[in-house]
Amino acid sequence: MVVLVSGVWGGSVIYASLENSRAPEELALSTPISASTATATAPAEGTSTAGTIDGAWAVGGTSQAGYRVNEVLNGQDVTVVGRTNNVEGQVTVDGTSLTAAKITVPMTGVATDNNSRDGQFLSILKTSEFPTSTFPLAKAVDFSAVRDGVASVQPVGDLSVAGITKPVAVILEAQTTATIVEVQGTIPITFSDVDMDAPNLGFVKVENTGSIEMLLQLSK
Question: pTM of the predicted model, to two decimals?
Fold first, then answer.
């Protein structure tokens, strides 16, 4: 029995170590640039500089969104990250205020490195009935700091997942480059807050808290 338990525990440690080494790093802005650097490079017509953020923007490029949670396997924490490059949205900046935004993510494209896990994910989120998640901005937020470097703000909006809509705050950073506006956001989530039970298979369970991550590229 001791040998069996030791073998199971040792296997769990090895599995956890391997999975954690494979887990992608948190999404982050590219190396920040100063406003003077951004304006020193003449962009092509229709692209952004630190001084011209006003207007309507579309989410595109290599934008990403997904989730990050911890599984507990026989006492070992395993970081699980699911992501998709299929992200849609529109953002409006009036002067230096972020006045409107709506981000839409087709959830069926969110994937990890495990097909079985992904199937369970799709079932939990009821994607056959609610295939997309959305986040519309609830009220305007001051965006002026992005003109001088990285803007750190916490806009609020209504997150809709699996047919449940809840008000949330986004921990958000944004910056301009010579061609686009980059936006990195994190939304802390709790399964019970969206009327979901964290998956629990006995030997492996998912912790009740996690986060939604996004890295958006905005262009005109």
Answer: 0.80
